[in-house]
């Protein structure tokens, strides 16, 4: 394909994608109406409560015209003067949220240390978040205080690039790198918008991303004051110390580089549609495991009643910790991944070369010239009737001894609470009971979503 | 045990060991007579051939009074003026050796590039080695020219310590670290003598050896001119560039440190008797392998008709090379060792965690930002109907593919000539055919020596 015909092809793709992702006029009107209603409600309720110093702020992609067709998210912040004490802020904001909850078709309290509710209203998913009206993004009192500055920055700088943001977001969705929640570890909307502004549009982002390497730094406001060790560093134009791409995982960073490079080589529409994996049947799973010849274990426990962004770091830490525990004990781990269903079970899966090791274990001790350690190693294993052999190899004592953990299951059951680093909520839940699932038990897990997930884990393909 | 009672105990041990290892007067007279006869023969033959410029030199432990009871070795060198050309040296020395061969009860030509014969005479093992009479150990024309200097140095410096050398040698024999042939990798007689002189006797050597570490340097003549990367560096007092301990393996160096330290803690006679392993029966071997739960493979081929010091480095290199080949292909090697019988078979043994791996292999590719390598990796594995999955993990492409080498046997058979570094003589012999032995075939190997060897390899214990 020549450069010119590629350019033409990308133009065609842009047009086609825009057709798909640009919100309709009807959608826009609907959203505008609902949003206005919410803001009016807030003002009315605040006034009735004598809270005349609050200001409702519409933030989020809807506000900056970078929302995708079919996306029904509205974010409204309720800002308070920055000098009121947190106690008062907390109490007063709860008063407004309590009333606002009643205006929704349904609602959910999502506050952790920060008050925050989610309501559903006329088909929209609405986040209502109290915050402080601080002077700048660098002077925030709580994490959410940055958002209004982000929104303002994008509104000011995005003009003329709104459509590029839409196309960029859809490309990221289609290639599986969009979404900054911990579970995904991809690009946030704000990050996507900054990249689009910085590189002047969709093609500019892809061309530059094709050449990114670990540690690439983008400092759009030219005011970085802190080093970051992340795959990608995008200095927040509203806060010189913050990396907007801090939550981007190395895997998603690398995947995006690959997808950008490949798309530019052969621009086709397929990149804009997420690959979907059909649910595999338990019988297909069994057949696949036989073909792989590996062994799968699942550690299953009641999902802790926590938000995904609290839970997933703990699941990932558990994967890593179990992999280390198994590797230390000479099991070979091939893959780990985690499945979690709210109110149901969470399962950490570990795929192993084999779950059974021979009765003999060869243990290397200290070098002979480390006299103190040598003495304790010899005391333990020399002249021990259970050792197979005790000798010196190169500079070290070596004992061939009976293996304590001949199966991965026994190792996990014996050591999971002693040697695995478990997050607080996962540990609490596991203390109430957990199961070690083998293939037969894994086959009993129900639900299309789970079997789609398993299919993706076992047969993932980067396409096109 | 108090320091005094230990000292006393060591005195008792010295006395007891001397009783055992000091040659009897009868032995001494006999050796003196045979040696004198050999020297007389050399002079007589040389004179008859008109070779009046040669000088026979008695070297070796017999000459320096450091030989052990029961040792019947005599070393006599036939020295030539250093300025004669090698051709002439070779021709003339062969003339003498040809005649000397006839004086033995039997004889053997041991020359490689250097002429050299071994004769048996009246129960003695006699080495007859032509050499050049060079000016110093640093000016040698062939490797053997050093020996007369070594002998002279020890004779001059050993006075009063001869008995300590005997005890030292027996301690080294008893602990399995004596002998500088490649197969053993232990201490040579000359090295033992220098250590005894340097540290002032048997106890001095043990006390200092207890505190040796990798890289210990002993420069008795204080004239080192070259760095050596060896566990122990003992600069040759007759050649500043040479390390007398160059052939000492790290394992034997470390073992000696351990043995010295342990003996000084608890001095008992047991250290002076080599541990012997009874031959195990094939049935015991089978039972032991079941207990270990590991798997043993032997690669068996006709022993190349070469001296052990030529053959063993090649066997050791083959062990290392096979271990690397297997490890690269994800097999876990536990032990390797080599057995060799002159005129019969040599067998390189490899003990593995398992000889069978699952059909799936996970292969990590280049980082995405290595565009050239990425392209060839993707070309090979992406959209390949045989891959299980193709994805990105952290910064790298990862393909789950069918494993080519699912058994260690197939890997070895397919790759031994392509990827294993084989010494010339081993390769030549294997090209004529080799077998991969499994447990059943190993059980068919005959000979007490082999089954002692196997017993030692599987049940080695450092004792006391």
Automatic annotation (TrEMBL), chains A, B:
It catalyses: a tRNA with a 3' CCA end + 2 CTP + ATP = a tRNA with a 3' CCACCA end + 3 diphosphate; a tRNA precursor + 2 CTP + ATP = a tRNA with a 3' CCA end + 3 diphosphate. GO terms for biological process: RNA repair; tRNA 3'-terminal CCA addition. SUPFAM superfamilies: Nucleotidyltransferase (SSF81301), PAP/Archaeal CCA-adding enzyme, C-terminal domain (SSF55003), PAP/OAS1 substrate-binding domain (SSF81631). Gene3D superfamilies: Archaeal tRNA CCA-adding enzyme catalytic domain, Beta Polymerase, domain 2, CCA tRNA nucleotidyltransferase, domain 2, Poly(A) polymerase predicted RNA binding domain. It is an enzyme of class 2 (transferase). CTP binds at residues 61, 64, 150, 169, 178. Residues 163-273 form the tRNA nucleotidyltransferase substrate binding domain. It comes from the Archaea. The keyword Chloroplast does not apply. The keyword RNA-binding applies. Catalyzes the addition and repair of the essential 3'-terminal CCA sequence in tRNAs without using a nucleic acid template. Adds these three nucleotides in the order of C, C, and A to the tRNA nucleotide-73, using CTP and ATP as substrates and producing inorganic pyrophosphate. tRNA 3'-terminal CCA addition is required both for tRNA processing and repair. Also involved in tRNA surveillance by mediating tandem CCA addition to generate a CCACCA at the 3' terminus of unstable tRNAs. While stable tRNAs receive only 3'-terminal CCA, unstable tRNAs are marked with CCACCA and rapidly degraded. Belongs to the tRNA nucleotidyltransferase/poly(A) polymerase family. Archaeal CCA-adding enzyme subfamily. Homodimer. This is CCA-adding enzyme. It comes from Methanimicrococcus hongohii. The lineage of its organism: Archaea, Methanobacteriati, Methanobacteriota, Stenosarchaea group, Methanomicrobia.
């Amino acid at each position: 394909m020549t450069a010119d015909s590629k350019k033409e092809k990308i133009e065609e793709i842009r047009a086609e994608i825009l057709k798909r992702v640009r919100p309709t006029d009807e959608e826009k009107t609907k959203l505008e109406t609902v949003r206005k209603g919410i803001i009016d409600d807030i003002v009315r309720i605040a006034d009735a409560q004598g809270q005349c110093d609050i200001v409702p702020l519409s933030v989020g992609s809807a506000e900056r015209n970078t929302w995708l067709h079919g996306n029904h998210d509205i974010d409204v912040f309720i800002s308070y003067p920055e000098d009121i004490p947190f106690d008062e802020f907390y109490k007063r904001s709860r008063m407004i949220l309590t009333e606002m909850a009643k205006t929704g078709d349904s609602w959910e309290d999502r506050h952790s240390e920060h008050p925050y509710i989610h309501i559903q209203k006329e088909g929209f998913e609405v986040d209502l978040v109290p915050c402080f009206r601080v002077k700048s993004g660098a002077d925030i009192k709580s994490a959410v205080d940055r958002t209004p500055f982000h929104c303002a920055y994008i509104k000011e700088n995005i003009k003329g690039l709104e459509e590029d943001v839409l196309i960029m977001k859809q490309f990221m969705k289609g290639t599986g790198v969009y979404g900054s929640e911990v579970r995904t570890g991809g690009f946030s909307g704000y990050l996507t918008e900054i990249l689009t502004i910085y590189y002047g549009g969709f093609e500019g982002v892809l061309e530059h991303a094709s050449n990114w390497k670990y540690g690439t730094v983008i400092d759009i406001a030219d005011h970085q004051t802190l080093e970051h060790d992340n795959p990608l560093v995008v200095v927040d134009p509203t806060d010189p110390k913050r990396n907007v791409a801090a939550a981007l995982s190395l895997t998603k960073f690398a995947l995006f580089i690959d997808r950008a490079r490949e798309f530019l080589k052969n621009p086709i529409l397929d990149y804009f549609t997420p690959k979907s994996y059909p649910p595999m049947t338990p019988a297909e799973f069994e057949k696949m495991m036989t073909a792989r010849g590996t062994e799968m274990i699942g550690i299953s426990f009641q999902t802790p009643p926590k938000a995904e962004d609290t839970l997933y770091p703990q699941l990932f830490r558990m994967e890593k910790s179990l992999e280390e525990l198994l590797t230390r004990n000479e099991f070979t781990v091939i893959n780990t991944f985690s499945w979690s269903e709210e109110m149901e079970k969470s399962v950490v899966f570990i795929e192993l070369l084999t779950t059974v090791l021979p009765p003999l274990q060869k243990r290397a001790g200290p070098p002979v010239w480390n006299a103190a350690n040598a003495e304790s190693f010899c005391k333990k294993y020399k002249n021990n009737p259970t050792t197979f052999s005790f000798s010196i190899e190169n500079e070290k004592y070596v004992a061939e001894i009976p293996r304590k953990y001949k199966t991965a299951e026994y190792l996990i059951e014996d050591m999971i609470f002693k040697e695995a680093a478990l997050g607080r909520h996962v540990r609490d839940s596991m203390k109430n009971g957990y199961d070690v699932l083998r293939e037969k038990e894994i086959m009993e897990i129900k639900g299309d979503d789970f079997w789609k997930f398993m299919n993706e884990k076992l047969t993932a393909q980067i396409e096109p």
